[in-house]
Amino acid sequence: MIKRIILLTSHFPYGAAETFLETELPFLCAGADQVEIFPVNDLSMSAINNPRPLPSNAKIRLDLNQDLQYRLKRRISRLIAALFDQKWWAALQEEWRYIDPIVHKSSSSRLTLIGRALSSWSCARIIKILLEREYNKTMAGTLFYSYWMYDSALALGLLRNENRDCRSVTRAHGSDLYAERRVLPYHPFTLFKITRLDKTILISEEGMRYLARLFPDQVDRMHLSRLGVAQHEIAPWSSLGNGIRILTCSALTPIKRIPLLVEALALCSITIEWTHIGVGPQLSIIKKQIASLPGHIEAKLIGQKLNREVLEFYASHPFDLFINVSEHEGLPVSIMEAQSFGIPVMAMNVGGNAELVSSQNGILLPADATPEQVAAAIENYSKLSTDEKSLKRFYTRRTWEEYSNANIQYLQFVQSLERLFTP
Question: What is the DSSP string of 9-30?
């Protein structure tokens, strides 16, 4: 068993994001004497006053978060300190061969990219200093685990590089992995992170392929470990006859492309009951779209819900199809959750979606599917017989069992972490 896991998160256990950690954390706690959670982003007072429930051997290091935020606000001094760090200049020389191609492929200047790299290094350097100060005497038997491959992962790379007894890993999901999805298409020091950490853990085969294409010499340091969701009873279901009940669950942000789905619904001639869970900056746009939908399309925007409330909703409401029309994805936990209830999924072929969705258990559309294609897919699915839909539901549940069962995925993950401490 691992003595201690230091889990670096974005905000968890505060706020509403990183809901999938609620499922993973009990497995981490079962595999370690203690888990200490260090959220590295700035936290609102309302979030601080409402942390999510944790296992008994999990502890929040709010003190480290507050110390970090205080130091990060001293922006000029931390950037100057980084500039005088000899390790920064050595790392920049190594990084230069990745900066130059980005300049040629995009409109970004070298100065902009170097500034981004310096900011990342200065932040990671402070996190590393805090961790070293706190755990220097108890490094042996302690695992440092960054949930995202952002600056916290770089901090662990710095820590691991200077401490022989340190063991450190990072996960890589989607936004923290695919640089080209960002306005500034650059994730600083990715190679540095991979080569200094014990493991870089990808959540999808597509993520593995992507990173392996970039750094083929480092494949042996990359590992696949999918996220998982808990087992649930099969959701109630009965055919709606000539109609269909569809479900979406996401933030209402441009990348999720919910307006595209509403355009598709407007083209459908069948009865549709659509329920959406989630809020976001496109809410007003979508409400205007819904107002012009024909009468045979019923839309219900039920707002934001806690993860446990989402799962309770799935367990008590019948749906024919869960739909994901995102422009980009990693390996969506929202799809895993729907599949755990036996709800078939229609999704775009982006990210790792094809690892979970197929013609056998649902509908996989082209990444650039048009509203017309989405509408046709919905109508075609509604025309399937009850037996055909039931068979889709059977294979949907089997997909969850094979690829997304938390009891399998997270148990194997913790066992892989324990092996880092095997002599």
Answer: ESSTTSSS--TTHHHHHHHHHH
Residue type, 139: M
The predicted model scores a pTM of 0.93
Distances (CA, A) of 217 to 78, 169, 416: 33, 18, 22
Confidence band (pLDDT; 50, 70, 90) for 107? Answer: confident
Which two tokens mark 100?
């130059």
> 2-228+407-421 and 244-404 share one CATH topology?
yes
Does the structural domain 2-228+407-421 have CATH classification 3.30.830.10?
no
As a residue count, the chain comes to: 423
Asked if 19 contacts 336 with a C-beta cutoff of 8 angstroms, the reply is no
Task: Tell me the one-letter amino acid at 113.
Answer: L
Asked whether the CA dihedral 22, 28, 30, 32 is positive or negative, the reply is negative
Compute CA 155 distance to the chain's CA centroid, rounded to the nearest angstrom: 20
Triad 298, 345, 384: Cα angle to 5°: 75
Number of Cβ atoms within 10 Å of the Cβ of 260: 17
| Tens digit of each residue's pLDDT (9 = 90 or more) over 198-251 | 999 999 999 999 999 999 999 999 999 999 999 999 998 987 878 999 999 999
Bridge partners (DSSP) listed for residue 298 = 273
**Measured distance CA(379)–CA(328) in Å, rounded:** 24
List all residues 6 or more positions away from 50 whose beta carbon is below 8 Å from its beta carbon.
14
d(Cα 131, Cα 38) in Å, to the nearest integer? 10
> What is the rounded CA–CA span in Å between residue 34 and residue 57?
5
DSSP bridge partners of 170: 146, 200
Say if CB 347 and CB 327 are below 8 A apart.
Answer: no
Domain ranges for the chain: 2-228+407-421, 244-404
Q: How far apart are CA 164 and CA 270, in angstroms?
A: 64
CB 24 within 8 A of CB 55: no
Tokens of 13: 């256990």
CATH class of the 244-404 domain in this structure: alpha beta
Instruction: Compute the distance between CA of residue 88 and CA of residue 69 in angstroms, rounded to an integer.
Output: 21
